[in-house]
Amino acid sequence: MKKIASVLIGTVLMSGCSMSSTWDNPIPKDEFLVVAHRGASTYEPENTLPAFKLAENLDADYIELDIQLTKDGELVVMHDKDVKRTTESEGKIQQATVAELKQLTADEKKGGEKADHTLPEEAYKVPTLKEVIEAVGERVHFIIELKNTKEYIGIEAKLVEFMEEHALIGPDQNGMPKVIVHSFNKRALKQIHKLAPNIPLLQLISFDEGEEAEVDEKEVQDIQTYAKGIGVTYEALTPAFVNTMHGKNLAVFAYTVNDETAALRLQAMGVNGIHTDQPDLLKEEG
Asked: Is 263:280 a contact under the CB 8 Å cutoff?
């Protein structure tokens, strides 16, 4: 896990670090996890194998990725349900076979000293979930986002089956969950929980600009029935909110953090992890 230089912002935020003496959660309470959002997506095209391999090399604790379902029932990795934004083509993923998607490459090539400029165009093909797991699954774990579940009937069962086949359910040798699943879609998360209660789930919640994070007690109690934590717009987080969620045995992840000062402030609050496009945002001390 990341050992962050203790350049934290005084003690004014430290009141957010206290939590319940009993932590009944597979997500550790005493680690600050760095999650590579769509891979190292500042340096390489998002949700591509180069982005994931670079995130691994930069010692990300988890890689976050998004899955979609093809016409022929394959799980592929892409954020949008349409290929237009990230490839040179257009059209919905659910209307294409995996073979057709394999003809596409990421349209946006990124520069910078951390990008591998020697890679051929073939490296930037749309990856399947299986290809990602095989490429980087030995050293790094995953947070998988379920998207467009109303359009992809049965994607929850498809994902659970995949995770079972690849032994991705449960902890690693250090007790860390191999895979966490998150989504804004509560129904989809509840379906995953019904199919495989041992998969840790995070309920994603967004807040408007200037709004402080707040979840009423009834909603919290509902989340506790299926999830192990929440993912929250980082600007909305406060020490009091993080402390309250921890007191409910709910982990708190912040997204998407690309500012070092903000990351340190969130660490001081006691959040369990941050999603960032720059997994090297916080350097190890020494």
From this structure: no
